Amino acid sequence: MTVTIYHNPDCGTSRNTLAMIRASGEDPVVIEYLKTPPNRERLVELIPALGLTPRELLREKGTPYAELGLADPKWSVGELIDLMLAHPILINRPIVETPKGARLCRPSEVVLPLLDSPVREFVKEDGEKVAYTPPA
Fold first, then answer.
1. Which tens digits make up the pLDDT trace of 20-35?
2. pLDDT below 50 — which residues of the chain?
3. What is the pLDDT of residue 1?
4. Any idea which residues carry the catalytic annotation?
5. pTM (2 decimals)?
6. Which residues does 6 contact at the CB level (< 8 Å), separation at least 6?
7. CB-neighbour burial class of residue 16 (10 A; exposed 0-12, middle 13-18, buried 19+)
């Protein structure tokens, strides 16, 4: 199975998601999206695959969201995408793609149904325990 994660190593949720993927036996393609952001075509493909709108994919915390006035509904879809391309930190993370689908993995355990052999138990960096029972 090919697993791709758009990852920010400075983000605890992203680190936990990557750790869950690896603990499940996968060797993912890791794209540090702040260093290698997706191009327009890729971002436009990812957004509907995630089941989100561009506005729903925006990250507010630790970004120029407020400074740019992105809460204002005046911004078009194209303009929001342009801003995410210009400021990749605005793209919420982590995003994971597998043959089973694509998801914004917040919280990190959202990744588990996307994996062939997901871990059943995991302890996050902060000590929170995750228990997962795959659907029958």
1. 999 999 999 999 999 9
2. none
3. 82
4. 11
5. 0.94
6. 31, 33, 38, 91, 93, 94, 95, 96
7. buried
